Fold:
Amino acid sequence: MDAVLLLVALPVAVVSAIRGVWSPCGLSMLSSITPMTEAGRGNRFGVTAGWFLAGGLVGGLSLGLVAAGGAALVGLADPSTTLLVGTGAVAALATAAIDFGLAGIDLPIFKRQVDDAWLRRYRSWAYGAGFGWQIGFGVATYIMTAGIFLLIALAVLTASPLQALAVGATFGLVRGAAVFIGRNATTPAALGRVHERLDAVGPLARDAAAWVQVLAAAVLAAVAWTPLVVPVLAVAALVAARAGRTVRPTAVRSA
Structure:
């Protein structure tokens, strides 16, 4: 049971990072850092994207470091595993309710965009790493899913600073790697096709972010209490999904 929180937190981190691609910030990055735009600035896309990926990883580690501090404090308190896992289950239900639109909180929240003036002011390594860090930190720009709060909570509840760092690093790595979605955008038409494909799968990413939190709640509840909790949670989630099908639409692209 010691690793159950980590095993649940990692997929939450991955799906939450993927969901962030559809933020105005994420979509803007996929328009601003491409082979076409980097060539226009006299830079190589692979180099800039590499710095972006590195920045994303460091940003995720920074988030993990914050969670690691909380995890260390939880470890000192030495609560029971059942309490930790059960708390994680409750947290997952709460964040899922937000994503399903049942908590009265409209996503996205913290509507902060990165400063695109950096593209003109700084060298490619600086804006690549700088943008990557902000996006990899998870809570420094648009927050598209409450799954980000869940992954932080689960990282803290692991009571292990190393596991908390691993959760943060996973989020940041996936978030930073998203820049490579635009690797084939060598012309305006090709860039348009990239965004068309993203528009098509946006609702799927939105739903996946919500349902992975429901799954996390079911797994943690089953481990903490009893497998009989799972069908109850499944029914509750289906009712919640039906009631919250007016979940906000996919975010619009912002340059």
In short: The two ends are 45 Å apart (CA to CA).
